[in-house]
Amino acid sequence: MAAEFTSTKLNADNHLLLDQPLLRLPQELARRNLKSVQRIVEREKEYVLPALKDAAKASMSNEQTPNQTLATLDAMISRMQGLKRKMENLHQEEKKIHNQSRKRIQHLEQLYEIPSLTDVKYDHWSRVRLDRLVVDHMLRSGYTESAQQLAQEKDIENLVDLNVFVQCQRIAESLRHGETKDALQWCNENKAALKKSQYNLEFELRLQQYIEMVRTGDRTKFVDAMAHAKKYLTPYIETQSAEIHRAAGLLAFPPDTKAEPYKFMYDSVRWVYLSRLFIRTHHELLSLPSRPLIHIALSAGLSALKTPACHSAYTSPSSNPHSTTTSVCPICSTELNELARNLPYANHTKSSVEPDSVVLPNGRVYGLHRLLDMSKKVGSLQAGTVKDPTTGQIFDESDLKKVYIM
Amino acid sequence: MMDLVQKEHERLSKRLKSSQSIKSVQEAIDLLQSTRDKVASDPSQASISLAKLQTPIKSTFDAINDNLKETHGGLNKYSKSLDKLFKDRPLPNSEHDALSAQEHLINRAIAMHLLREGQFSVASAFLSEIAEKKAAERQHEIDSDAIDEAAALLDIGGVPSSKVRDQFHNMYHILHELKENNNLLPAIEWSRNEENKMALEARGSNLEFELCRLQFVWLFHGGHEQRGPTPGGRHAALEYARREFQVFLPRYLREIQQLMGAMAFTPNLQDSPYKNIFNNQSAWADVSHSFTREFCALLGLSPDSPLYIAATAGAIALPTLLKLQTIMKAKRTEWTTEHELPVEIPLPPSYLFHSIFVCPVSKEQTTDENPPMMMPCGHVIAEESLKRLCKGTRFKCPYCPNESHPRDAIKVFL
């Protein structure tokens, strides 16, 4: 009884593991949103205040005609209107983010009101969690349409991050097609945060641009390439000196060279690499786990459920689809069987079998009660005989033997 | 902890001053505009008006920055409350992701889960997006190969995926009729399909009878009207019994006698010993559950979505596994590389499906390579333990005085 209680008790604080990104992501987005506001306000402040001062000074000393003053004021008005418009857009976004956070907090709070894992409310909550994990997986794989549909049908749009992943996929896709523009713009928007990144996304992108210039084989482009390298690559000289020297060497090798590492630098797989690097950097910046949450949940869950019987050559008497006496184990079910094959099975320190276990002459063990019950249900069976629910063999009741499991 | 997060978020919401800031900008714009108008109508006022502008415009920006600072403070406090909530609970790192190489199997599990849930349009969108991606990876237009390949994700054993999809469609339709319209007929029809009937019988399933019995009860309560027992309902039920129950004799003789016996108690069924058969609140849910179980079993599938059970078990197991990961990391090993998890995960009893046998001598679980062996006395130990104990000759059972020869031990299947 005590063991059962501990295995069904729900400790919400401990349970909220897979749900970190649910709150972390909007918090990161809110931070970014605030940064954007700060940036545009600062920019206008730095323009408007000095301009106003200059205008006042000029007007005082009669260096400015009234028309010039009017023009200065008009320019200021239009910039302030621009500022207001941008702030309004960001404010709309901010409201959306915080509304989403609120909904997510409410969703997590529900878990705190559920005392037990066997509660039907937990079942419901856990199904919503699975829907979230599935949508997360779809978005990360680029199956946007499916993700959108599922989120809509399950009414969990506030609990998933469609836009973030769609934008991420779009940029990753553009890199796979050999374009750096969107990715560089993204780097520019996240300049401050990128400084703390463990990856060198921007350097790699600039290096790729350089490689593309050299690839043309055009002498005039070489000059551009060197200027590009000087401007964008040399600032990284302390950390990336090997790559920078290699880049310089590239000038001496044509794109069809067999010499490494230059052959590799020209290789188009670098775009695939850049695309992946972008995704990793993007997820790092937004506190998103690098692999789909469903992988984390499943690799733990499959192992926790798996037993040596799940991939045994012999049909397990205690769980198989051949009779109503047993229920099919989820790991034995087609959906997961292959997936679980190479994972470790659960650890058990105690046997657990039916207390009234008997063994049939074929070595199969069943609970006596279950066996007799089943044999009764199968009509057409002679009195005093039992049917092996798994193999269908028929045995005399007198051939059953009690088995003792310690 | 969650309370703190909730409180900090509420506090933060109060510290969002964007609309106020936008209002300040508008006031500054108005001020600039009125100054402009003044200068336009009276240029001589230009320098004095401009001088007057300096302070209010500067304080507009100061006010906005104060607002931003306040929001910033709120955000920091909120993010600290999140740190506290998730403290010491980092997600497992990605160094070893055994599942990432099995993408297609995960997609298959998801697609089948969607079908089980009746999400047919999402499932087909999903399969076609998988096909598109495959085609794109091969650098050419989407072709029929890729579509077939994606669809083939759903093949079960020898059953092609289109058929699997039809099967689930059918299951969903039957369940829908059952739950939404109290219509048992599609389910009864399914259970009487020749092939299904045989398979159900071999399983020792009561499904057909359970369905028909509920149909009887439903008719008794007035069918679509459900006005409670009326002479008309009683008549319809008896009519149904005469027509349909013949085949259930003699297997369900006792149950049928109960149904008939109950008729004698109308209209006072409530006080009769049969009230549970006739006023069972969960009868429809129970019968839906039996139907799903039988339907899935005939496909060799588990009745509940395995993806759901596994993901839930995973969430329950994670706290224990993470604690372990920290320890294992110190020892430079990873749990996913072992045959067996190094620690027991307490799962609720409903997550146990197979019998578990742990050899009482070696304390190891038995496997195909090291199966459980039963000695003539009925005690069971693992084969390796047996070999170690007997050394080829007669030996004493470690749990009773019985002596036996190792060749008398038989392999058992739990």
UniProtKB/TrEMBL annotation, chain A:
Record's keyword annotation contains Cytoplasm: yes
Domain RING-Gid-type residue range list: 329-391
Major subcellular location class: cytoplasm
Domain CTLH: 164-221
Family affiliation: Belongs to the FYV10 family.
Function noted in UniProt: Involved in the proteasome-dependent degradation of fructose-1,6-bisphosphatase.
Protein's name in the database: Protein FYV10
TrEMBL record, chain B:
Major site of localization recorded for this protein: cytoplasm
Residue ranges of domain RING-Gid-type in the record: 359-400
Zinc finger (RING-Gid-type): 359-400
SMART domains in the record: CRA
Pfam families: CTLH, zf-RING_UBOX
Subcellular location: Cytoplasm
Highest taxon of the lineage: Eukaryota
Record keywords: Cytoplasm, Metal-binding, Zinc, Zinc-finger
Alphabetized SUPFAM superfamilies for the sequence: RING/U-box
Record's protein name: CTLH/CRA C-terminal to lish motif domain-containing protein
